Amino acid sequence: MSPVDSFAIMFEVDGQEIGGVAARCLDLGEDALAKHWQETYSRMYTNGETSPVSGFSGAASREIRGRVVYLGELFLAEGWRKGVVDWRLVFHYLFALSYLKWRSDWIYGFVRQQDVMRGKASRYGFTRQYVGPQTWTKCVERRSSQEYLVAISRQDLFDAAAFYSASPEDLRSPAT
């Protein structure tokens, strides 16, 4: 990874780092996201042995392609997790920054099933939520077949930008 194809944002309060998130852009061209996963997972997770994934969902195989940005490695220190950060603002900032830096076609990440059921993917601003994007056959730390692929397309991002430009007060998350 390099500054050309990735960035990280660290969250800091009073000089103390409390978390961060990373983004990486891949130009897949006409290849689907699933093809990229298939080509890289055995190298990433099993040192080149057989792939730890036996299948990929239709959305990753047929829909998500082109210039894609992966948002991941989101971390926030324990004392800062309960409603202190307005994630909607953070993610829309990340979406805008990713689009402006790379002119992305898609921005995606993974959200655990229990967090999707609690509405986190929608609160973050992802407009697409795909159940079971990968079927994991080997146990890999922090990966699961129960994760959701969450994404926002370029057009959905444009629609959100138009909406929030006209009504910026609606971008703030309602108090919970």
What are the defining features of this structure?
176 residues, alpha+beta, six-stranded mixed sheet, two-stranded antiparallel sheet, globular
What can you tell me about this protein's structure?
It is a single chain. The chain is α+β, with helices and mostly antiparallel strands. It is about 35% helix and about 35% strand. It is built from 6 helices and 8 strands, in the order ββαβαβαβααβββα. It has helices at about 35-45, 60, 85-100, 115, 120-125, 155-165; strands spanning about 5-15, 15-30, 55, 65-75, 105-110, 130, 135, 150-155. The strands form 2 sheets. Strands 1-2-4-5-8-6 form a 6-stranded mixed β-sheet. It has a two-stranded antiparallel sheet with strand order 3-7. The radius of gyration is 17 Å and the shape is globular. The N and C termini lie far apart (about 35 Å). The model has no long low-confidence stretch (mean pLDDT about 85).
In short:
The protein has 176 residues and is an alpha+beta fold. It has helices at residues 33-46, 58-62, 87-102, 113-117, 120-124, 154-166; strands at 6-13, 16-32, 53-56, 65-76, 106-111, 128-131, 134-136, 148-153.
Instruction: Give the biggest sheet.
Output: 6 strands, mixed
- Structural class by SSE content: alpha+beta
Share of β-strand residues: 25-35%
Order of helical and strand elements: EEHEHEHEHHEEEH
Number of strands: 8
User: Number of helical segments?
Assistant: 6
Low-confidence stretches: none
Cα-to-Cα separation, first versus last residue: 37 Å
Widest sheet: strand ordering: 1-2-4-5-8-6
Cα-atom radius of gyration:
17 Å
Shape: globular
Level of helix content? Answer: 25-40%
Provide mean pLDDT, rounded.
87
